[in-house]
Each structure stands twice: as C-alpha cells, then as structure tokens.
Amino acid sequence: MCYNLADMRILRIVGSFGFILNNDWLQPEGSNNYIGGTQIQSFLLTQKMSDEGVEQDVFTRDARVNNFLIKNVKFYSCGIRGDYLFPIYSIIYSFKKKYDFIHVHVGISPFIPITGLILSKIKRIPLICTVNLSWERIQGYGLIHTYLCRISERLVLKNASAVVSLMSGNSNKKYIYIPDIIEDTFFKTKIVNNRSKYILFVGRFVYQKGVDILVKSYEKSNLSSRGISLILVGSNRNYLPKKLTSNVVVYEHLSRKRVAKLMSNAIALVLPSRFEERGTVVGESLAVGTPVILSDLENLHSAYFNFPKKSINFFNLEQFNLTRVLNNIDRLILKINERKKMRLYANKFNADQVSNAYMNLYKKYEKGN
Question: How much is the pLDDT for 30?
Fold first, then answer.
C-alpha cells in the first residue's frame, strides 16, 4: 500500500504521443498527422504525474518517445508499426517489474486495452482505463478491426476496476467522468477584445473533420465580401482544393503557442466534423475565451456542457446550414468580460484540476486499498 505520491508506481499504456519537440507540439515537415487530442491528453497527464513525484513506466508503440526526457518516467517503445506485437512486447518487458496499478489510454487500437487487461491479470493489480472512442471513426478501419474493438471494449468493461470517460452522462456505474485536459498554454494566453476579422479551423484536413464543408460554406457566405477571412490550421494540405479564394489562408506546422494566439484573436472557432471523439480544440478555444461553432453531434454535447450562452453554437450538419450560421457571425463577437467568463467555465479542463481528479482515482484503486 502506498501512503504518499512518491511511493506510487504506475504502468501506463498508450498508443502514440504524437510529435513533441522542446515541450511544444509541432507538426513535422511532411507529416499528415495533426497532433490528436488523445495524444495530448496522455502526454500531459504523464507529465503532471511526474511533477508530483509519481514513478511511471510508459509502454507505447511510438518509437519517437526515445527522445523524451521526463523525470520519474521511463519510456519503452516497440516501434510505430508494432500494434499486433504490442501485448507480447509489453508482457516481456514488464514481467518482473512491480506496479501499484495499470492505466490504459484507449484509442482506436483494440490491442492497447487488451495488453493492459492481460498484464493486470498476470500481476493481479487493478486496471484503470481512459476510454475515448468514436465508433464512426473505428468503422473506417474495416469490419475486422471494428469487431476486435467491440470485443476489447466488452472485456475491459467487465474486468477494469474503473473506466474513465471524457464524456458526461454515461449510465454505466463503472464509468467515472473526468473532463478532458487542456494544456496551460491556452489558459495563459491573454484574452483580448475581439477586433480581428477571421474565423478559424484547427485540426487535420481530412474527411472526418469536415473541412471541405467549411470551405464550401464560407465561399457561399457573405464573409469574404465583408473582409472576414477563413484561416485553416492543420496538416494534409493535399486534401484541400488546389484553388482557394484569396481570403482563405492555410497554415501548417504551427507551434501550440501560435495556435493559441490565433484562437484568442479569432471571431470563432469552427469545427464542422462529420464524426468526432471529443474535439480537444473546442476546449482549447473556450480556454482562450473564443466561441465555437460545432456540428450537432452527441459526443460534443456530452463533452462540452453548461457553458455561458453564445459560447457553444451547434448547427445541423445534415441540413447543411453552416452558411446561414456564418452569415450571422456578428452575434458571436463577444465583449471581453463575456470571454473571460467563458474561460472561468473552461477551468474544469485545467491540467491541475484534471490531474488532481486522476490522483484521487489512483489513490482509491491503488493496490492494497
């Protein structure tokens, strides 16, 4: 039994941490992968726990973690393409090590939670899972992959000590709601009076994110004629039309500080996703006091609720009425006190608050309690 944080030892299993350089999230040249919310959440939680003195072994399939130097944390990688060998690799390398419990971050791979489940059974220690699944996205990987994910989810729900959900309202008693974690960069970014003339999209340029819907809606709207630009920040430029109007600006490979500043100065962030897990950029935008325009998706309703009026604005994707929303963008130009109020509500995503919630959970389920 552990009585203080410094005595606690965690085995953390994640898929990928993305690409991190000098504590900033940068998109490597030539990469088609914008840093995902699950990657950021996993890394920030690992970092916050290390600051508290918690020892952690992190098993991942991402070879790039070999460059990470974080106190109290040891990284083990089986290579970026090691998905199917992941359970074997993890069992071999952690077999003689002792842990208080295992924390698995579940994404789109069925092998990550299964690995945690096998190890928890072998070592006879509690298993905690953070689950963040979009079945629409998983189905895009094919029937076999979807079937394996379904089996994996059932086994984890049956055997895990606790399942952390980033969405509210789940009726399953094993689910514990802990909000998404937003990095300090966004909470430290200065909230300013909104004088800039642009709307913003941040994310991967892919079918899932609906960036094509946004570009078409913008071109049909009256924003361009009013001098209001559309700024697109992300990766995979080849997905976008080769010819864009002069008021559509595309940025790739931006640092997180630059993204936060762009968000803070935008009239609104627009996320017209066809399907979404939780849309971390939404929380980031709320943290800098910028309202968001979102597809009317159940996951987004569950992840972002109880915010002040005009903070979150849903539109019906099927009715393709985003153009009408954009034409009325003036109503989203908020006063600075309204924007500061938005940040207060977003404070539940603050890294300290979220990590404290996880720490309380760890203490409850650590071995021996």
Answer: 38
Q: Whose CA is closest to 82, among 53, 68, 62? A: 62
CB neighbour class for 54 (10 Å; exposed up to 12, middle 13-18, buried from 19): buried
Q: Left (φ > 0), alpha (ψ -120 to 50) or beta: where does 279 sit?
A: left
**DSSP at 28:** P
Report how far Cα 84 is from the mean position of its chain's Cα atoms: 24
Return d(Cα 253, Cα 367) in angstroms, integer.
43
In this structure, the chain runs to a length of: 369
Half-sphere exposure at residue 18, Cβ-oriented, CA atoms within 13 angstroms: 21
Q: At 327, list the tokens.
A: 């034409």
Contacts with 284 (C-beta within 8 Å, 6 or more apart), sequence order: 182, 183, 186, 202, 259, 260, 263
Q: With the CA atoms of 103, 108, 110 and 114 taken in that order, what torsion angle do they form, in degrees rounded to the nearest 10?
A: 0
- pLDDT at residue 6 above 80? no
Instruction: Write out pLDDT tens, residues 191-204.
Output: 887 778 999 999 88
- Going by C-alpha positions, the residue among 269, 72, 256 that lies closest to residue 182 is 256
Other beta carbons less than 10 A from residue 174's beta carbon: 15
Tell me which amino acid residue 232 is. Answer: L
Tokens of 195: 């004088």
What are the beta bridge partners of residue 21? 24
How many other C-beta atoms lie within 10 A of the C-beta of residue 30? Answer: 8
Q: How far is CA 311 from CA 43, 145, 177, 285, 294, in A?
A: 27, 37, 22, 10, 11
pTM of the model: 0.82
Report the distance separating Cα 311 and Cα 65, nearest Å: 36
Q: What is the pLDDT of residues 51-84, one digit of tens each?
A: 888 888 888 776 555 556 678 888 877 665 556 6
Answer for the pair 185, 264: CB distance below 8 angstroms, yes or no: no
